[in-house]
Amino acid sequence: MEMTEFINQYGVERKQTNSLKWDALDVRYGDPDLIAMWVADMEFKVPEAVQEALHQRVEHGVFGYSYTPDSYYEAFFAWQKKRHNIDLEKEWVRFSPGVVSALYWFVNIFTKENDSVMIQSPVYYPFHNAVLDNNRRLVRSELVNTNGHYTMDLADFEKKVVEEKVKLFILCSPHNPAGRVWSEEELIKVLDICQKHDVLVVSDEIHQDIILGDNEFVSSLNVGNGKYQDNLIVCTAPSKTFNLACLLNSHIIIPNEDIRNAFDLGSKKINQCETSIMGQIATEAAYRHGEEWLDSLLEVIEHNFNYLKKELNEHAPKAVVTQLEGTYLAWVDLRNYVEPKEIKGFIQDKCRLAIDFGEWFSDECQGFVRLNMATNPKFVEKGVQNMIAELQKIDG
Ligand SMILES: Cc1ncc(COP(=O)(O)O)c(C=O)c1O
Predict the structure, then answer these.
(1) Domain Aminotransferase class I/classII large, which positions (predicted)?
(2) Which residues, judged by CB distance below 6 Å to any ligand atom, belong to the binding site of ligand 1?
């Protein structure tokens, strides 16, 4: 479907729909009139087939305890095979209401209090919270930022793994907010270190379907022809891909039987929750019928990001725009214009934007902003032009 047609058919206003992004601006930012470009969901309705499947269930009118049918697994596995060449087995799959909940479970099940857990920062802030809220030691290996391009510091990573006796590593692949789709070569190196030092890897692949340009996503399940599967838990979900976050259905994939048994035992103690029937129905329909919708969405994201990059490069060239390889979250360093501690006033009061602030992802990143590109281009245009007008004032 052509981009404009997609926007016309699926674009939607979200104010006054209990939307965290739009209706909690006052609570979260102290200002209800900002343009909402923060939290990672979208101003697009789900694929038509998903809405129809949900309608049918609403018509039926029963929301009792549910069972996951074989057809669900067929649709999920076919999607993973077609889009990512991943071969899955039913026994490997567990469910959670969200990937963040799952991260909390893993920290509880696979580590003890005061054990060390590694992350690569800047990274999606619930990674920190899952570790700190459970009284584990947070070990950070900072990614290396070279003019906005991020790479892993493997020497630092390995040194800290050894020195801090790290038990668990939470990998973000593709990476939010660094926009990287890690190459297989990079993944081999980091997974090798973890295997060598017996560090269990959780690979959060929630952004696996949002891959731009020629970038190629390689799941940790497939890295080195599957050679790390025995030391691995992978999380995937339809929630970012199809805008289904609050239908509370995501996947935990554990190929190794011993890790799976440990997970099952541990999760019995802390997790007696049902799966969401609406999430299950929406997911199956999305994986069966959502491919064309997703391909159009990717065009919109790419269009929005290219607009932001081109405009900032031309009119505010000292803003450092990280190339968006994957995810729909653009990452921009404004420190050449704005004193890091002034960034909130600049972005909110001057540019009139609600964005994710860099310091949420790492203490080192005050002065960076993360802007959501999965939205109607009219918001990106307005947001970017507001920023340029204010940045040009600073530049004199
Ligand atoms: C890397 C990453 N993991 C997890 C989530 C959220 O997952 P969930 O809503 O399933 O808890 C996000 C949301 O932006 C994310 O970027």
Answers:
(1) 45-381
(2) 40, 98-100, 124, 172, 176, 204, 206, 237, 239, 245, 250
